[in-house]
Amino acid sequence: MATARMRAVHRASVLFAVVFAVLPSTTGEEQVPLMLWRSEGSAAPLLALPPAGHIVGSAQLGSYLETALNSSPRNLLLFLQDKLSVEDFTVYGGAFGNKQDSAFPNLEKALLSCSSPLVLPAVSGLASSAVIGQLQDQLETSPLYMDADTLAQLRLNASNPALLVFRLPYSVGVDLMSMKDVLSGNDEVIGQVMSIMKAQSVPYTAIYTALRPSREVSSVVLEAGLGGGRSLLQARGYGRDRNRNREKERERERERPGLYPPVEYKEDGSSCILLWAGNLSVSILRSGRWEGHDLTPTTFGEGVTPRLQGSSCDKSTSRLVLNYENVLGHRSFKLMFIMKQRHFPVSARRWFTLDTVELEYDGTRATFNGSRHIYAPAEYSYRCEYVRSSSYPALVPRSDKDPANQWRVYFQDFQIQGFNVTGSDFSYASDCAGFFSPGIWMGLLTSLLMVLVLTYGLHMIMQLQTMDRFDDPKGPAISVPQTD
């Protein structure tokens, strides 16, 4: 047993220096890394790693996850990054001895503290895209999308399984340091989440992976008759290959899970309401803890037809009703968006507002007001990265006694349009991000303070006067009268 533990620790310690430095075989298939670890004190059998260069498919990944979860804590943390490749660990992970410059200190610490981490350098893109569905089937619970601030307010139960998904960004910057800062920020989120789970004394299993690779793997195929030596790319075929790769990338983007059409409500054969979201989730407070449910799989996606009975639209009011069944123990559940269009004389134009978001369940209705924060010109659509009822809420309960106080709604990458819809595409989006962000205000106030200090200093310098008389050491001393 001691020998097995030492092997596991050694395998984790050389993670950033060896495992991710050995790249998979060069193929045209998309590949992303996947790491699985458990909280301290959670024991689990060692899992045999695939041979070097092997790409883990959907079936094999499902087998790995099933084996790992059968003997692991049932509270699972999924850190899902938009893009990730093994080269990111080689470039930013301090793989060549400079650990002080690593962008993954919290991730490396978690892997070292786990007795049997699972490290898969190459997982196929199709398998990584379906990892949420596989975890949902094995845990028999719906995923709950959240951030670290929301997790701090949530009380988990070790006996009840939970699938918590944390989306991490990935944006290619103009230089290496900007990309390193993004990955360092994601690593800080991982460390913060693990600290919260440790403070609540809840055992957990964590997975860190991505939806698609951040770097293209290019393969050079040696033509027959070249003798297997080095050769330059042929200018004659390189342009065609590059265009062909671009077309394949566009096809993959269209076929990639998560890129689905919006919900479209038609009246008299023409579209009048459009709704799209990366995530639609609701939570209810029961016995001192929040229970969540993800409505996204039953609202969006290929082959999904949401039930829109009760929806309506005209020139002044639009009402979109999403009908569900068996949501958080409620047999009948409705999510309603009520929008109104008005003319405002001050701006001399018409605007639409999302007046209320209502939850109707088993004869009870919970109402959230949104007209104060959610609005856009009548010809535009409204778009916001986060629309929620907690943590800087854009939706607030109608009153202190409204049932909405026991509910939370969370919409991510939210976009809606209830008027002047043309076809199946949104109009120009009015984003919720304000022009003056907190960072801009800080910069303006700091600059103003510096200008005031500089102005005061210049004013004091201009008030200085030179002496009109000077003391001559060979002559009599200058006497300065004390009184006028």
Question: Could you describe the 3D structure shown?
Answer:
The chain is an alpha+beta fold and 484 residues long. Helices cover 28% and strands 29% of the residues. It is built from eleven helices and 20 strands. The protein has helices spanning 2-13, 15-19, 58-70, 86-92, 105-113, 125-129, 131-139, 148-153, 176-199, 235-255, 438-462; strands spanning 31-38, 75-83, 118-124, 143-145, 162-168, 205-212, 263-267, 270-276, 279-286, 289-294, 312-313, 317-327, 330-344, 349-361, 364-369, 375-377, 381-388, 396-397, 407-417, 429-431. Strands 7, 8, 9, 10, 17, 19 and 20 form a seven-stranded mixed beta sheet that branches. Helix 1 runs antiparallel to helix 5 and helix 3 runs parallel beside helix 7 (131-139). The termini are far apart.
Could you outline the blueprint of secondary structure elements for this entry?
Blueprint: H1 2-13, H2 15-19, E1 31-38, H3 58-70, E2 75-83, H4 86-92, H5 105-113, E3 118-124, H6 125-129, H7 131-139, E4 143-145, H8 148-153, E5 162-168, H9 176-199, E6 205-212, H10 235-255, E7 263-267, E8 270-276, E9 279-286, E10 289-294, E11 312-313, E12 317-327, E13 330-344, E14 349-361, E15 364-369, E16 375-377, E17 381-388, E18 396-397, E19 407-417, E20 429-431, H11 438-462
Parallel strand pairs: 2-5, 2-6, 4-5, 17-20
Antiparallel strand pairs: 1-3, 1-6, 7-8, 8-19, 9-10, 9-19, 11-12, 12-13, 13-14, 14-15, 14-16, 15-18, 17-19
Helix pairs in contact: 1-5, 3-7
